[in-house]
Known about the structure:
By secondary structure, the protein is of the alpha+beta class. It folds into five domains: 2-35; 41-169 and 604-640, Triger factor/SurA peptide-binding fold; 189-221 and 476-573, Chitinase A, domain 3, CATH 3.10.50; 229-245 and 362-465, Chitinase A, domain 3; 266-356, Chitinase A, domain 3 (Roll). The chain has helices at residues 2-9, 12-28, 31-35, 52-70, 76-81, 84-105, 111-118, 134-143, 148-169, 176-187, 210-219, 221-224, 250-264, 280-291, 296-303, 321-327, 360-392, 397-404, 431-437, 474-505, 510-516, 540-546, 577-611, 617-623, 631-640, and strands at 41-45, 48-51, 189-197, 229-237, 269-276, 308-314, 335-340, 343-353, 408-414, 449-450, 456-465, 522-527, 554-558, 564-573, 614-615. The strands form four sheets. Strands 12-3-14-13 form a four-stranded antiparallel β-sheet. Strands 9-4-11-10 form a four-stranded antiparallel β-sheet. Strand 1 (41-45) and strand 2 form a beta hairpin. Helix 10 crosses helix 23 (577-611). The two termini are 53 Å apart.
Amino acid sequence: MLAAIRTFAKSWVAAVLIGLLIVSFAVFGINDVFTGSFKDWVIQAGGRTVSSVEFRREFDAQKRRIEQQQGQPIPLELAVERGLDRQVLQVMADREAFAAFLQKVGLYPSDKLVVDEIAKIPAFFDPVSGRFDKTAYQRQLAEANFTTEQFEQMARDDIAAQMALTGVVAGARAPRAMSALNALYGLENRDLAWFSVTPAMVGTVAPPTEAQLQAFMKENAQQLTRPEFRVLQVVRFTPDAVGALPPVDPAELQKRYEFRKDTYSTPETRTVVQIPAKDQAAAQSIAGRLQAGEDPQAVARALKVDAISYDNRPKTAFPDRAIADAVFRLGAGQVAPVQSGLGWQVVKVVGVTPGREITLEEARPVLEAEIRKDQAAEKVLAQTTAYEEAHTAGGSLAESAAKAGVPVVTVGPVTQGGRDEQNQPVAGLTQKLVEAAFALPSGGESELVEDGENSYFAVRVERIVPPALPPLDAALRAELSRVWVGRETLKRMETRATALSERVRKGEAIDAVAGSVGAKVVRVAGLSRQTAGQVQTVSRDVLGQAFTVKPGETFTARDLQFAMAVGKLEAVRPGDPALTAQITAFGRDQMSAELFKELEESARLGARAAMKVKANEARARAALGLEPESLEGKAAGKAEK
């Protein structure tokens, strides 16, 4: 390879490339290449920057949180498609801008305050002593890919932000007038009157003619068109379908029992109190006091040390081997001083819980089920191996399945949603199988696809039935006629309701207008926004109009069942004064919280504008290992949004 490099270096191509390199140094400057002045920033706010590595770390952390909430992994491409990269970029840009602004105005917590706050974080406590452990702190930061400087800067920024925002909202409270207006709005009472316009009032609509029916079918072609159907040939390899399995080998059963019995058995445990001593003499003194019956906690307090308690712990749970050996040599109530890696310790065994070993007969059902599961998996492996060998050699799906001794099942017609021609779910289909089938052309065959633990399938598209309007048979004709008649009846009711509403608007009494068509006015008094949802005799559409129109105005709306309503808002009255006062007082705290939130958002927006934040989306995508979006792609995305 070195010889090839030397040969290339002597060629005219290399000379041209070296010449271009020299020109680029002259144009862009050689210093940036050798002095490392290139800035890998994704976000820039004042004098602060966020690197690609820091952005990727925060993106990954946010993605993991979402995955934990949803209980399933999320592909990177899907997370980016849903805008997670832009959300993280926005949050980090706001945070950096606010921190830079606070630095600029001189709001900066002391190093001591930062250290004190970090020392209060329980994640960095030693599990034995319950105190801050610097080693645990550094280890956990390293595992999270943080340096101590980065973490402490984040802590400093958080403390400064809390101090600033606390100062911004300190003593702030929403004006009582705002809360009072909200209470008045929610509690005002409305008196409503309305009557129904029913199908009987507009006459019977004649069935549609053939031309009307064809036009109606064409008008609703999109809703009526049947989806694409596919007829499939499917071969499945599953543990449940492998047939009879051989009897369980007793030797294999015994072998598994010997291997697993420790995990099935319950180990002996001890409840122990441990007191540290400064030397052997102190340990002997503590042991004497415990043997005399003194309370271990009282002894520890007298010596100004912490007693450590272990509650029903097995031997493996004790951190020091010497202490574990001593504890499990002692009986209940016994005391002993121990020299361990932690120095001199005095242990007292408070209680002993004997262990229990599971017998072969007790473990037999579980072990036999495991063996049968393994046998079935081996048989599935043999079947899939035989199928793949035959299929690779040129055999069709059916021929390869026959070689493997597995039946082929014809499924369908079936839609991409896994439903049959009656729109019922087709039994035995999985989402993965349907997706594989609809990714193939007519006559296409898939490779073996894993579909669950030790389960596989292969599918062939036998026939494709393209989307089409259904035939206008007697059943469809009757259904379309019924819908058409209903639509025309509704149109007539809407026209009649509008005309009657106009009469009321011009001054006729609503009772007189209702009586002219044989209807009766219904009245509901005291409707409020808080209680309206509990009224079952008024349709949602009528209620919506009742809280939209002004007093004295009329309206039309869809009534309950198949009818139209002609309504009038007769009066609007204020709610109960005592209840209004209570809600005013209660709602003021809630509105204050909303006000605090808006103040915080305003402060962050102001900081972002003051610091002239720059966010490089292309560099952020590159940090995630993605190609930058093209200008055409961005334009299309904006147009779609």
